[in-house]
Amino acid sequence: MKRWGFKIFRKFKRQNVYAPMDGEIVLLSEVPDPVFSQKMMGEGIAMIPTDGRVHAPVNGKVIQIAPTKHAVGMRADDGTEILIHVGLETVSLQGKGFKVKVSVGETVSVGDLLMEFDLAYIRTHAKSLVSPIVITNSRNRDQKYTLTKEKEGKMGETVIMTIK
């Protein structure tokens, strides 16, 4: 006797992406950088942080840390790849103002601290504080991305995006 029903439910599993920081939530289309606003890197959302910490938005593994420490890439347990990019044109800061708290290959859970950054320094020396959270493999996956309607996000509590 075959069991058909369970495979149907597994296909439509939901992945919640939680706010990786406290702050204002903005649409990716409002990010003042065409690489992000035109979704060249993938689907996503952005936040304007109110403190200098970035936490894991999903359960998964750290797969990339930018040499200039301004961005962290993760692969969620379901295979979704997420890039958290703090500020705009922060690569030019050459790592100044950033302290990464994880290593590539490390397994993390929602809310684990990934990095700290000097909010005042980034505000003064970067183009913008707006921080894109992008699904870098969204073009390769047949999924639906639902963005929150919330305007403020609380780290680890606010679901900023749901993936089905």
TrEMBL record:
One of its GO terms (molecular function) is kinase activity. Keywords: Kinase, Phosphotransferase system, Sugar transport, Transferase, Transport. Gene3D superfamilies: Glucose Permease (Domain IIA). It comes from the Bacteria. One of its GO terms (cellular component) is cytoplasm. InterPro entries: Dup_hybrid_motif (IPR011055), PTS_EIIA_1_perm (IPR001127), PTS_EIIA_component (IPR050890). Residues 33-137 form the PTS EIIA type-1 domain. SUPFAM superfamilies: Duplicated hybrid motif. Pfam families: PTS_EIIA_1. PROSITE patterns: PTS_EIIA_TYPE_1 (PS51093), PTS_EIIA_TYPE_1_HIS (PS00371). GO terms for biological process: phosphoenolpyruvate-dependent sugar phosphotransferase system. It is found in: Cytoplasm. This is PTS glucose transporter subunit IIA. It comes from Novibacillus thermophilus.
